[in-house]
Amino acid sequence: MSGPLVVVDALARSFAGVPAVREVSFTVGAGEIHALCGHNGAGKSTVVRMLSGQLAPDAGRIVLDGEAADLRSRQVAQRLGVALVDQELSVVPALTVLENMTLGDIDAPLVTRRRAAVRRCRELLDEMGLDRLRPGQLVATLSMGERQLVEIAKALSQRARVVILDEPTATLSEAESRRVFAAVRRVAARGCAVIFVSHRLPEVLELCDTVTVLRDGRRVVTAPAADLTVDRLIVHMLGETPHRLETSRRPDPDLTHALRIEHLRVPGRLADFTLTARAGRIYALAGQLGSGASDVLRALAGLHARATGSVQLRDRAVAFRSPVGAARAGIAFVSNDRKGEGLFLDKPVAGNLVATRLDRLGRGPLVAAGRERRTARSLAELAGLPPDRLADPVLTLSGGNQQKVFVGRSLGRPDVHVLLLDEPTRGVDIGGRAAIHRLLRDAAEAGLVVVFASTELEELLELGDVILTMRDGRVVDTYPGGADGAVLMRDMTEGKDAA
Amino acid sequence: MRAAIRQERLVPAAALLLVVVAFVLTPLGTGSPLTTFDVYNALQGFAQIGLLALAVGLTMIAGEFDLSVVGTYAVGGMIAVQAGQSSAVLGLLVAVAVGAAVGAVQGALIAWLRVPSVPVTLAAYIALLGLAYAISGGLSVTFTNRDATLWVDQTVAGVFSPRSLLTLAAFVLVAVVLGGTRLGAELRAIGGDRRASRVAGVRVERKLVLLFTTSGTLAALGGALLSFSFASANPDPGLRPLLIAAVAALLGGASLAGGRGTATGLLAGALSVALLAQIVAVAYLPDYSTQLFYAALLAVVVAIDSPGLRRALERVRARTRPVEA
Amino acid sequence: MMSLLTAPPAAAVRARRARPGRLAVALAVLVVVLLPVAVTTERFLTLGNARAILASAALVGITAIGATLVMIAGSAVSMAASQTATVVAMVFLATLDRGLTVATLLALLTGVVVTAVQGLAVGYWEANPIVLTIAAGFAIGGGAIWFSGGTPVSAAAGGYEILNATPLGLPLAVYVLLVLAVLAEWILRRTTAGRQLYLVGENRAAARAAGLPVGRVTVVAWAFFGLCLAVTGVFLASFNTSATTNLAGTLTLDAIAAVLVGGTAIAGGKGSALRTLGGALLISVISDVLLLRGYETGVQILVKGLLVLAVVVLVHLRGRR
C-alpha cells in the first residue's frame, strides 16, 4: 500500500464559458471516508460527475491507485472499480430487489444460480439493516428511503475500490441514515476509498474522516473532521453574505389580496403548513431535498391529488387538487423540471410565452394572430429576451433564457395573482440569475404574491422578504429578509432540536 | 404502487380461474356434458393464437408493441405452404428464418435509431401484407402435403395435438429462459425504466433486436402451423388475430406501459382467451358475445391502468377526509 | 442538465435552419423519382385518372384528417376506426326512412358520441389509447352484429343517392375531404383548442402542470375524429347501399398510414391536416402509377408499407434532439 487510492489533481471544468470547477485537488486514501461539502452551485456535482465517468474534465487528472485513469464513460469507470450512488436512482421499480442487485452486473452469470444469488442478496440486505425486505419483493413496493438503501447495497456489492455517494441520505429518515452510515463504515473498513457528498453537516462530521469544502468551484479547505465544527464548516461554505435585493415597497396591507394557506398536508411528504402570504412580498421556502418545501408549491399548483387543508385567495376557496382549478384561481406555477414539466421545447419562444393564455388572446374560441404576436413581443421585452429569437424553438436558447421564457409566460396577466417557483434559477448562469431575480422582484412590486422554494442559500437571502426554513415536512422557523445565513443553514440541515 | 405486483399475477390468475369455472359450468346451461373433444378444441384455439400472444406479450413486457406480428403470421403461413409442399419441415424452417429476419430488421430500426415501435411495426405490417399478397397473387394457396396436415392436428393423449403441444413447448421454453437467466429481469427493466437500465449497464439495444427477432420467429412459426392445419394459407388474416393476441397478452398481465408480465402469465392469458371462445361455441351463444366479453375484460384492464382515474379517486378521497386529521 | 447547459450556439442553429430539412430533401427526391415514372406511364396524365386518384383518396383521407388531430394530441392511434365507420353506416341506412337529414344527423351524432367517450377516457383518465380502442373496437363490432342480427343492413328508404352525386365529375366525398381538411387546419392553427392540442401532444406533463385543460382539449380532438369517421361511414353506406360488418375493411390502418406519410410524428405535438391530405394523395398516386403499370395489388400494398416506413424513419431522425 503506497500513497492514496484516489488523487484528484487540479481538476477544472466550465460550462458554456462559465467555470463550474476551478483547479480542485484532494486525495482519498484506502479506508478513508472523505466528505465533499459546499452549498448548491459550489461544484460538488461536477466533481462527482467527472470522478464517475459522466463528464470529461477540461484540465487536470484523476489518478487511481497510482495510475492516471481515463474515465471516458460510466462503464469504464465501473470497470476500474468506481461505484456511484447517484441522486437519480438507477433501481428499476418493476424488478425485485434481487433482480436489481444483479441488473447490469458484468460479473453476473447468464444463467441465474438462484440459491447462491438469494443468499448473497440476503447477506447484503442484512448488512444494510434491511432484514424486513425479501429478495423477491418488488422495488415498487418499497419506500423511497428503502429504494435508496437498495441502490447503495447494490453499489457496495460490486467489487468497487472507490465508492462515491452523492447525497445518499437526502430523502432518508434518521433511522435509515444510521443504516447507511453503518454500511459505509464497513465498506471503508474493507479498504475502499469513500467519497461522501452531503448537505447534512452534523452527519458529515460524525461519519467522515476528512472534509473538503468547495465554494464557487474552488477548494476552500481540506481538514480532518475532528478539527471542524458545524459552525466553522458553515463559515467556510458561506464566504461573504450575499447582497440582498431590497424592496422599497411596503407589503399590501389588504389581506383579501393575500394567499391564505391553512393546514396544508400531503400524506408522506408534508406534515402541516400554514402561511398567510401577502401581495407584494416574496416568500422563500428554504429546505433541502425532501424537506417538503417543493411539495408546498406542488400542492398549491394542484399537482398533489391527495393534498388536504384549505387555501384561500382573494376570499375565494382555491380548488387546489387539480391544476386546472389552481390555474383558474389565479395561481401560476414554475416547476423545477423545466424540460419535463415546464416548457414546450420544440415550440418557438413566442408560442411558449403565450402558451398558458391562448384563451385570452382573442374572441371566443379563436386566437387573434395580431394580438398573439404583440403579446409575445411585449412579454419578450418584459422578460429581457432577444426579440430576434421569438421564432426559434425554445430548445435552442441558453438555460437562462429558457428560464426567462418559463417565468415570463406567467407575467403581465391580470388574472394571475400568485406566482409559485420551485428552484427559480436551476441550471441558469450568473447573469441570467440576476435577471430572473429582478423579474421576480418586479412581479412582487406589481402586486403579485410570490412564493419560491430553493436549496440555494444565496438565492434565499437575495430574494426572500420572509424566509421559512423547512425540514422533514414541517416549517422549522420563520425569519424576516436578511436573516443570518448560518442560522438558516442550521435550520435546513439540522432542524431546531439539534442546535 | 402495491397494485403493481398483484396485478402481474392477479389479472391472469383471475382471468383464467373465471374462464375455467365458466367452462366447467357450461353443461349446466347446455344440458350436455363436456367431452374431451371440447378440451381438444379449446387447445386447438389456443394453438391458433398462442404464439402470436407470446410474441406480442414479450414486446409489451419491454415497453414496445409489435403490430407487425400479424403480417409475419400471414407471410410465415404463406411461405411455409409454398416451400413446404414437398417437405413440411423445410417449409417451417424457411418461414421461421424469414420471420426472424423481418423481426431483426425492425428491431434494429427501433433499437439503434430509437424510432417508436408502433409506426415502424405498422408500416412493416402493411408491407408484409403486400408481400403475402404478392407471393400468392392475392388468393388462398392450398397445401397439398396431406401427411403434414394430418400430423399436426392428430390427437395426442385425447386433448392435445402436436400443434398445441408445440405451442405449449414454446411457452415453456420462453418461461425457462426468462426465469432462469438474467434476460427476464433485463426485459422487464428495459420496459419498466429504460434510463435506469442503461445506467445500471444493461445493453438495451442488443436486447431489443433480440426481442423483435424472437417475436418475428414466434409469429412466423404460429402462421406456419396454422396453414399446415388448415391445409391452406390466407394472404390476409385481417387485424383480428393481432387484436385477440393483444387481449390475451393484456389478460396475461402485460401492459403497454411495459415492465410487467411473465411467460406463465401470458400462457394463462392465451388459455383464457381460447377457453372463452370455446365456451361460446359449446354453449351456442351468438358469435358476437366473444367480442363483447373481450371488450368487458379489456375495460377492466384499462381502468386498472389509468393514472388519471387513480388520481381522480384520490382527489375524492382527500376531499371527503375530515380536515383535522 | 447537460443539454440545458450546452445548448448549441445561436449561429449554428441559424445555419441549420437555413439548410433545407432532410424531409424536404427526401420529398424532393421522391418527386424527382416519381414524376418521370408517372408522366411516362400511359394514361396517367388524363383527367379521368386524376379523378380516379382523388376519388380513391377521399374516404381514407376523410378519416385520416380526423386521426391527425388525435395523433397530434399525443401518440394516440385508434384501432376502432373501421368498426365505428361501420356502425355509423348501419345507423344511417336503418334510419333513412325518417328522411336523409335526420338519418345523416343521427349517423354523425353516433360517430361523435361513440368516439368522444373514448376521448374522455384518454383525456381525463389517461387511459392507454391503444388498449382502450381495441376494447372499443370489440364492443362496437360486437354491438353492431348484435343489433343487426348479423345480416347486412340495407337502406330503409331511398334519398341517399344525392350523396353519390359527382358534380364536375368528382364524387361529393372529394369535396367533403377538401372542406374537412381546410376546416381541420383552421381549427389547429386558429382556435384556442387547436393550439392547445399541439402543446398537450408535445408535453402532456408540462401542459398539466401549467393548468391547461388537457382533458377537454383531448375530448375535442376525439370528437372531431368521430365526426370524420361518421362522414366516412355515411359515404360508405351510400356507395354500397347496404352495410355488412366488414364494410369499412382496412380503414383503420390505411388512415394511420396516411397520417404518418403526411409527416405527423406519432409522438404528438407536430403535424398538420393539409399534410395528411398530401399523404393520402401521395399514397393514392403511387398506387395509381403501380396499377397503371400493371403491378398487382400485393406490390401496391408492399410499396405503401415501405413508403410509410421510410417517412416514419425520416420524420423521426429529423425531429430527434
Describe the structure.
The complex is a heterotrimer of chains A (499), B (325) and C (321). Helix content of chain A is 32%, strand content 24%. Chain A has helices at 44-51, 74-79, 97-102, 114-127, 144-157, 174-189, 201-207, 230-238, 293-300, 323-329, 338-341, 349-353, 369-383, 399-408, 430-445, 457-463, 485-494; strands at 6-15, 18-28, 33-37, 59-64, 67-69, 82-85, 162-166, 193-197, 210-215, 218-224, 259-266, 270-277, 282-286, 308-313, 316-317, 331-334, 418-422, 449-454, 466-471, 474-480. In chain A, the strands form four sheets. Chain A has a six-stranded mixed beta sheet, sandwiched between helices. In chain A, helix 5 (144-157) runs parallel beside helix 6 (174-189), helix 8 (230-238) crosses helix 17 (485-494) and helix 13 crosses helix 14 (399-408). Chain A starts with 5 loop residues before the first strand and ends in a 5-residue tail after the last helix. The model of chain A has no long low-confidence stretch (mean pLDDT 86). The radius of gyration of chain B is 21 Å and the shape is globular. With 325 residues, chain B is mostly helical. Chain B has a two-stranded antiparallel ribbon with strand order 1-2. Chain B contains 14 helices and two strands, in the order αααααβαααααβαααα. With 321 residues, chain C is mostly helical. Chain C has one domain (49-319): Orthogonal Bundle (ABC transporter involved in vitamin B12 uptake, BtuC), CATH 1.10.3470. A two-stranded antiparallel ribbon of chain C has the order 1-2. The interface between A and B is large, with 38 and 35 residues.
List the helices and strands and how they pair.
The complex is a heterotrimer of chains A (499), B (325) and C (321).
Chain A: E1 6-15, E2 18-28, E3 33-37, H1 44-51, E4 59-64, E5 67-69, H2 74-79, E6 82-85, H3 97-102, H4 114-127, H5 144-157, E7 162-166, H6 174-189, E8 193-197, H7 201-207, E9 210-215, E10 218-224, H8 230-238, E11 259-266, E12 270-277, E13 282-286, H9 293-300, E14 308-313, E15 316-317, H10 323-329, E16 331-334, H11 338-341, H12 349-353, H13 369-383, H14 399-408, E17 418-422, H15 430-445, E18 449-454, H16 457-463, E19 466-471, E20 474-480, H17 485-494
Parallel strand pairs in A: 3-8, 3-9, 6-7, 7-8, 13-18, 13-19, 16-17, 17-18
Antiparallel strand pairs in A: 1-2, 1-4, 4-5, 9-10, 11-12, 11-14, 14-15, 19-20
Chain B: H1 3-30, H2 36-61, H3 69-83, H4 88-112, H5 117-136, E1 141-142, H6 146-153, H7 162-180, H8 183-192, H9 194-200, H10 204-230, E2 232-233, H11 240-251, H12 263-282, H13 288-304, H14 307-320
Antiparallel strand pairs in B: 1-2
Helix pairs in contact in B: 1-12, 2-7, 2-10, 2-11, 2-12, 3-4, 3-5, 3-10, 4-10, 6-10, 7-8, 7-12, 8-9, 11-12, 11-13, 12-13
Chain C: H1 2-5, H2 10-18, H3 22-39, H4 47-72, H5 81-94, H6 100-125, H7 129-148, E1 153-154, H8 172-190, H9 192-202, H10 204-209, H11 214-240, E2 242-243, H12 251-261, H13 273-292, H14 297-319
Antiparallel strand pairs in C: 1-2
